[in-house]
Amino acid sequence: MNDLNCGRIIKESGEVLSWNGDIFLMHYLQQEEISRANMCVHMDHISIVLKGQKEILGQGSKILIPSGSGFFIRKGSYLISDKFDGEDGAYEAILIFFSDSWLRSQVESIYGCSNGANAVNSVETHEDIALLTEDGLMNTLALQLKSYLCQGADRERLSALLPIKIRELFQVLITARGGHHFEMQLRNLDTHLNPDLVPLMESNYRENISLEQYAFLANCSLSTFKRRFLQTFKMNPGKWIMQRRLETAYELLVNSDKNVTEIAYEVGFETPAHFIVSFKQKYRDTPKQVKQKL
Question: Do 47 and 94 form a contact (C-beta atoms < 8 A)?
Answer without folding.
Answer: yes
